[in-house]
Specification:
This protein is α+β, with helices and mostly antiparallel strands. Among the domains are: 35-109 and 217-331 and 352-383, DD-peptidase/beta-lactamase superfamily (Beta-lactamase, 3-Layer(aba) Sandwich); 396-498. The chain is built from 17 helices and eleven strands. The chain has helices spanning 4-19, 35-52, 94-107, 129-132, 137-142, 152-155, 166-169, 191-204, 208-217, 229-234, 269-280, 296-302, 369-383, 396-424, 432-455, 457-464, 466-498; strands spanning 56-63, 66-74, 88-89, 240-244, 247-252, 266-267, 316-317, 322-323, 334-340, 343-350, 355-361. A seven-stranded antiparallel sheet has the order 2-1-11-10-9-8-7, sandwiched between helices. It has a two-stranded antiparallel ribbon with strand order 3-6. Strands 4-5 form a two-stranded antiparallel sheet. The longest helix is centred in the last third of the chain and has 33 residues, at 466-498. The chain is globular.
Length: 509
Amino acid sequence: MLNPLRRAAAAATALLLGLLPLGRAAAAADSPIPADRLAAVDAYVRDRMEATRTPGLSYAVVGPDGPIHARARGTDGHGEPVTIETPFLWGSVAKPIAASAVMTLVQDGRLRLDDAVVDHVPDFRFGGSGHASRVTVRHLLQQTAGLPESATFEVADCVDADCPGAVERVAELDDVHPLGPPGTTYAYSSANYLVVAAVVESVTGRPFADHLRDSVLRPAGMDGAIADRASARERNLPPGHQLLWGLPSAIADGVDDDGAAYGYTGGDLNDLAAFASFQLRSGRTGNSNGTTVLTPESVRLMRDSGRLHPSGAATGYGLGWRVGGLEAPLDSAIWHTGATPGYSAMLFLLPKQNIALVLQQNLHGLLHDGAVMEVGFGAALILAGGTAPTDPPSAVTYHATVWGLTALALALLAGTFHSARLLRRRPVPRRIAPTILWCLAGALPWIVMVAALALIGPRALWAWTPDAFIALCTAAAAGTATIALRLTTAYVGRGIARRPASPGRVRRA
């Protein structure tokens, strides 16, 4: 906990950091973007930061040669001012980075996009041997292997020290039912990229994080990037923030040691900007030699969405990139967003302007994803020459869910105490209709609990929606106690009602 003087100093420093670009990401004097447009981006980000109560963020407008405009605002999970050098986690922005690492193996002839996954990971039995044998590396990268979105929660976000590795986790997909034959159905699932990590480890004989560093992170100039638990400790990664009953709390702490392929890659603004510049240079390094890391064909394949699009949307998915699907002037954008519990990030490549926007925040939760992520979409829209949305998404789903479950928990706790008082009365009253209603109310949180556990599981519920999970567990416990006490009251009251009155006593109604 910061003392008052230190908090005041941190606030003053954070304000200064919000006004001045810092570090290697200092703005260039000859920015190709009009100053009023950059000012509009700054104002929009500041407004959204306040609206979502985001504790800290940093962002940059990037060109092929590096950042041309950068800002850092707020505080990190340790209460320190966010700077350009403050590390964040990037969530699924890791996917185009991981796909780039895969393409280097393809270019070297060590792996083919149409290789069957089982040729490299024999324990891959998703959907049965017939289905699994037809899943290729390309299907995984395109999110068309048939893995449903819910499969993510089977294998992702394991931050304990004894978590199994990527290859071992593949077995957890054995009983998942495919959405369709490989290559026919798009479904976004981080489980695809967990399997990608297993394939790469089989091909290289090394941890995925090590291959990622050598093939992409270092060549792209991402010198401080995080790819595993050890590098997170080295960078002193602060905890991210989640809302607890509407208040941002620095409680999200942990890194999946085998999650770099699907979401647990991170770093500071310099690192994320370096990857954006690397992509604007079409996969060439930024040194004087301009070494080719990704060939033009690899870059083209990664950004080619083909005919496959998410259901009900125009957004395509290439090899690790989302393609198009946004309103003009972002209709040609190559982009990705991402989140881990407590962190979120966005990367937008704008090919027409030959610039990019990168943004990272230390707040995220499953129930207010739209409100938190809107800052990146709106800022990119302004940067591309558009107008900021006038009705950005709100966190109404979050508040309705959390406060609704909290109200249910409080009501059932009150019902528990009331039922206990009834049971202590003599004679115990027989109240059939209230008993039925209280039992139905007590069963409600269990219905919600079973549905939520079937959908995403207890680990994900706790990781992504801690306050809702606490309220739901409290409601379920209180509901169980209420049902037990009400049924006991009804049974005891029934027995008393049938017992003959003692001579000389008048039984009360």
